């Protein structure tokens, strides 16, 4: 039996529908920024973040031709007062890097932040695109990670109906694909646990593989294209994209948001004026963009009721 998802909760859907703007798009202004985010506290091991429980779980093992094993891990940060029998909302980050680069470390600062806010936060390690590993394998790994969280929710202290997935660039593609595409599941997955998140947050995502981004995928491109698989069960989605992105055209996010609106699915696109690619990544995007991205994700989850509206003084 498929486990019920939080996005089917009528109260959540009603709340999110009220949140959708008529145009589906809003432009971000720097005047909206908060000044109380101490990025150094999240990047470094300071008094603010010291003592946050950092753990990892192996969600999949692969036997290699060398007879060695590859272990895929979920790196998790828990709140200071976390208990095993908690039922906390979870937030899961998927890194970018064109499917063939990048690593889960890039989201550790955001994991720390949301652990300070009371969530269980995780960053996914997935196989990178190499010889013998392709985009559909990256997607299968990310689906396995979400299923692992739901299957082990009782021991991880999370609510399996309150899982948000955040992805950036190619990680945004994978997050979007996890939320829209039924195919490409690992053969060992227990499909009675849904891999569809309860909410999606896509940062400068690749959503349309009918573009040059899908050229190398050949006939599989449309099958792996999130834009072409949006449906009535696609979870509520927040997209944030820079309108000066030179890597992934903002039209990817505009098209995704438009299609969501056509199907009456809750969705919002925030356009960052004059902003280029990977704006939300620590030590890569401008600090104000990193702060803005954290703020918007936080605000999004407050609207769900999954975070308290009052932020801690040290966040």
Structural write-up:
- The chain is an alpha/beta fold and 315 residues long.
- Helices cover 27% and strands 20% of the residues.
- A nine-stranded mixed sheet has the order 1-9-8-7-6-4-5-3-2, with helices on both faces.
- The protein is globular, with a radius of gyration of 18 Å.
- Residues 1-23 and 28-35 have low confidence and may be disordered.
Give the structure's gist in a few sentences.
This protein has helices at residues 10-19, 39-43, 108-116, 135-151, 153-156, 170-180, 251-262, 287-304; strands spanning 25-28, 54-63, 69-77, 88-94, 120-124, 158-168, 199-203, 237-242, 267-272. The chain is α/β, with parallel strands linked by helices.
Summarize the helix and strand pattern as letters.
Answer: HEHEEEHEHHEHEEHEH
Instruction: Tell me the name of the CATH class.
Output: Alpha Beta
CATH H-level homologous superfamily name: Alpha/Beta hydrolase fold, catalytic domain
Broad structural category: alpha/beta
Helical coverage, percent range: 25-40%
């Amino acid at each position: 039996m498929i486990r019920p998802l939080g996005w089917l909760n009528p109260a959540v859907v009603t709340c999110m529908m009220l949140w959708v703007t008529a145009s589906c798009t809003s432009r971000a202004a720097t005047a909206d920024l908060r000044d109380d985010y101490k990025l150094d506290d999240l990047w470094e091991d300071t008094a603010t973040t010291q003592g946050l429980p950092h753990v990892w779980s192996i969600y999949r093992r692969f036997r290699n031709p060398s007879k060695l094993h590859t272990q895929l891990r979920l790196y998790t940060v828990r709140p200071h007062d976390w208990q095993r029998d908690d039922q906390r909302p979870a937030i899961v980050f998927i890194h970018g890097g064109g499917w063939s680069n990048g690593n889960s470390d890039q989201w550790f600062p955001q994991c720390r932040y949301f652990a300070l806010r009371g969530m269980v936060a995780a960053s996914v390690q997935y196989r990178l695109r190499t010889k013998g590993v392709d985009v559909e394998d990256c997607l299968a790994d990310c689906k396995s990670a979400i299923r692992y969280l739901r299957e082990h929710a009782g021991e991880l202290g999370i609510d399996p109906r309150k899982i948000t997935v955040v992805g950036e660039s190619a990680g945004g593609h994978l997050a979007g694909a996890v939320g829209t595409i039924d195919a490409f599941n690992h053969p060992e997955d227990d499909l009675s646990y849904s891999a569809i998140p309860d909410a999606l947050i896509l940062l400068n995502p690749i959503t349309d593989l009918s573009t040059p981004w899908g050229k190398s995928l050949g006939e599989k491109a449309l099958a792996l294209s999130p834009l072409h698989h949006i449906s009535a069960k696609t979870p509520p989605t927040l997209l944030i994209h820079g309108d000066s992105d030179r890597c992934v055209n903002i039209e990817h996010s505009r098209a995704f948001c438009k299609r969501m609106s056509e199907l009456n699915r809750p969705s919002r696109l925030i356009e960052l004026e004059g902003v280029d690619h990977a704006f939300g990544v620590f030590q890569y995007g401008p600090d104000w963009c990193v702060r803005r991205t954290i703020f918007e994700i936080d605000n999004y989850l407050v609207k769900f009721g999954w975070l308290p509206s009052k932020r801690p003084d040290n966040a």
